[in-house]
Amino acid sequence: MSRHPLMHILHTPAQNEHPTAADVWSGGYKIPWNDPAFSKRMLREHLTQDHDLASRKAESIAAQTAWIQQTFLAGTNAFILDLGCGPGLYAQHWLANGHCYHGIDFGPASIAYAQQTVTVPEASFVLGDILTTPYGGPYDMVTLLYGELNVFPPQSCRTILHSARNALKKKGRIILEVHTEKAVRHSGTISNWYKATSGLFSDTPHLCLMESRWHEHLRVARQTFHIIHLAQEGTTEVVETYHSTMQAWSIAEYQSLLTEAGFSDIRIEEAFPGSHEDLMLITAVNG
After folding, report:
1. Which residues form the Methyltransferase domain (predicted)?
2. C-alpha dihedral sign at 195, 199, 201, 205
3. How many CB atoms sit inside 10 A of residue 184's CB?
4. Which site in 46, 90, 220, 233 is 20 to 30 Å from 106, CA atoms measured?
């Protein structure tokens, strides 16, 4: 995130149409979910039942955990690792089915909420980046849902999948929900704006100007959000700029990533409920 006067936007050169991988994956390439103030606003988005932009609504979470339970975990008492767990909304469902649970997330407000609301000894939560935080284990299942993998650079994706495989028991399973290639490509073509009295980017009145780019040579979509904080009397407008970067992968490339990490029996699970046309569920087995 960068902070600058309003006139900075007018004097900023147009985005490079042919950036290198280092250009798009360095610095503030993603929204700072770990910033305490941003994390508090994001928690509101996770918990609302008005939309499912941050976390799915409660009915969808219930349907998805029931499907995974019936398909893969029936008759078992499993140890489950939830990568990018947010405020732990899946935890209660796994616990109700007799499983133990460990969640890791980057957002301090989300982890604090999870630790305050899920207090049984069979569940634990850790604040940390899933790229660098030790996973522990061994687990019967690792979940990484809602397209989280796509916001990491390619080599980081490989690291996460290798770490997940190493944290699983032999024949343990990864449940991986990813963005389709088409969805990532489309996200790089959308530009719009809105005004709000408060929201994800600010607790005060602001304008959000969003511009997007699709970089075909990298197969990367990059969205830039200019947040203009509307001036109060006696103040001037200030602009904060954020970026959100996503890597596109084809189905064959997802399969190759998982194979390279040591997984087998790779399947596209078309029956997974409560998902979105922009997402797909892939499952695979350790070994």
Report:
1. 80-172
2. positive
3. 21
4. 220
